[in-house]
Amino acid sequence: MKHYCKYPSCFLFVFFLFLSSSFSNASIRFPSVIGDRMVLQRNSTVSLWGWANKGERISVQANWNPDESYSAVASSNGKWEVRVKTPEAGGPYELTFQSANDRKVIKDVLIGEVWVCSGQSNMEMPLKGFISQPVYESNDIIAQSNNPQIRLFTVKRNISETPLEDCEGAWILSEPKEVANFSAVAYIYGAYLYKILNVPIGLIHASWGGTPAEAWTDKEILERSFKDIPIQLIEKSKHRSPAVLYNAMLHPLIPYGIRGVIWYQGEGNRMNPTQYERLFPAMVTNWRQKWGIGEFPFYFVQIAPYRYDSDKNSAELREAQLKTMLSVPNTGMAVTLDVGEYSTIHPGNKVAVGKRLAYWALAKTYHIEGIEYSGPVYKSMKIEGGEAILDFSFAENGLTSLGKPLEGFSIAGSDKKFYPVKAIIKGKNVIVSSDSVPQPVAVRYGWDNYVEGYLYNNAGLPASSFRTDTW
Predict the structure, then answer these.
(1) Half-sphere exposure (Cβ direction) of 451: Cα atoms closer than 13 Å
(2) Handedness of CA 180, 182, 186, 189 (dihedral sign)
(3) Which residue in 80, 91, 353, 381 has the most C-beta neighbors within 10 A?
(4) Count of beta carbons in the 10 Å neighbourhood of residue 226
(5) Cβ count near 422 (within 10 Å)
(6) Is-cis flag, bond preceding 255, omega within 30?
(7) 178/142 Cα distance (integer angstroms)
(8) Strand, coil or helix: what is 262?
(9) Considering only CA atoms, which of 464, 431, 417 is closest in space to residue 316?
(10) pLDDT digits over 388-419, tens only?
(11) Angle between helices 315-327 and 273-291 (to 10 degrees)
């Protein structure tokens, strides 16, 4: 005899019972950064993690090494993590995750070089540009961007008062329709690395325009070490509040395996350069401590000259960035003193920016000999008669103004009054003098909001603005 449910509620009960059973079986979940088309850091031990039912054992198999397997047990909050060895660059590969009730396969995985690309609007600026603010050569770059060996991940904008476990985003392939909307600096950097290294490149982009460094720094660090930086609740400028972007857009990426970070930010802290001189190095240290993989490379862009509408001299912020490069291990700075634009804070020459960042990585991270990576850096000054003779690091092959008059210099005596002068290059030195200053004491170069770079080394890399005084 057949038995039938006489009421619709019976069918609903069976349906929900089936649905509940399906959900309980499908227990393995991943953060968004771990998924199809991802790039894992080569020659490393990378973290893979996710969530499952409490106490459930997850086994992991990578088909690049079928003889080795990994496993972990989900903790009381359901989180699990395994550390998997990766080979030399290659792919595509698959990763299989197995539990008692579920099986997940992540496909089209490449092994290569992974970089986090973060900062404010100049990192956020897409290849297609902002309205009325173009990226030079963008259409040509976009047209040539079809390359499945380059993978892109953009973290969707979000804020949080507490650290989040996940963010919104997905790995996509490099192709024109996607690259047009991706960070110009990040893509140019990654494409140049691919051209030279010929290995898969993974770029994780997390940026938000108009944001200060404290928004990207863990709140615990700020409260413990920077009591002079006001730790406020999320109020008017929500995305500018301390720690909210670290919590929502960076913390969910940790501990994904990376080679290093490129960073383009500084305008958001321009009014507090002395504070930034402490804050920026602390942020770099904070990120390195959280990732727990040592002092990974951290290459950043010095803010470009621009006609700021205030009396605060942006050269002071550029100086704070220069001091970070000189004091924090394994950092490097791409100077943009020659590519700023008077009328926009978003200069269009992102090709120069991306390549200058890449020179640092190619020379210092990938140890390719023969590549110059830094422009001249002021080292010392000596006074002989009425002349100030300046010596520079990163000028072994000499200095040049690339055929332009060597302007941008000023000189002062003990009265602290600076007079603009034209300087001359002599080998690896710059000689500065003025009839108005018979006994020089101090020299400055590029010390204004908007300047044009004039001093380079023979590799064509520009010098940062600098001053010999501390007035």
Answers:
(1) 28
(2) negative
(3) 353
(4) 17
(5) 13
(6) yes
(7) 9
(8) strand
(9) 464
(10) 999 999 999 999 999 999 999 999 999 999 99
(11) 40
Catalogue the E-assigned strands of 290-400.
Answer: 298-301, 331-334, 377-384, 387-393, 399-400
- What is the rounded CA–CA span in Å between residue 115 and residue 94? 21
Dist CA 60 CA 442 (whole Å): 63
Q: How many CB atoms lie within 10 A of CB 392?
A: 21
Name residue, tokens 């200095």: 399
Residue with tokens 């010095």: 302
Q: Is the per-residue pLDDT at 270 higher than 60?
A: yes
The answer for residues whose C-beta is within 8 angstroms of residue 85's C-beta and 6 or more apart is 44, 45, 65, 68
Instruction: Give the span between the Cα atoms of 205 and 260, in whole angstroms.
Output: 12
Taken in order 19, 24, 30, 36, is the CA torsion positive or negative?
A: negative
Residue 205's identity, in one-letter code, is: H
Q: Cα Rg for the chain, rounded, in angstroms?
A: 26
Top pLDDT among 97 and 233 is at 97
Cβ atoms of residues 229 and 218 within 8 Å? no
Please state, in angstroms and rounded to a whole number, the distance separating the CA atoms of residues 125 and 182.
Answer: 8
314 Cβ partners below 8 Å, 6+ apart?
270, 303, 305, 306, 308, 449
What token pair was written down for 21?
A: 């059973």
Question: Can you give the pTM of this predicted structure?
Answer: 0.93
Residue-wise pLDDT tens digits, 283-318: 999 999 999 999 999 999 999 999 998 889 999 999
Compute the distance between CA of residue 273 and CA of residue 449 in angstroms, rounded to an integer. Answer: 13
DSSP 102: -
pLDDT band at 224 (very low <50, low <70, confident <90, very high): confident
Question: Tens digits of per-residue pLDDT, 144-166?
Answer: 999 999 999 999 999 999 999 99
Classify 270 as helix, strand or coil.
Answer: coil
Q: What is the pLDDT of residues 232-262, one digit of tens each?
A: 544 656 899 999 999 999 999 999 999 999 9
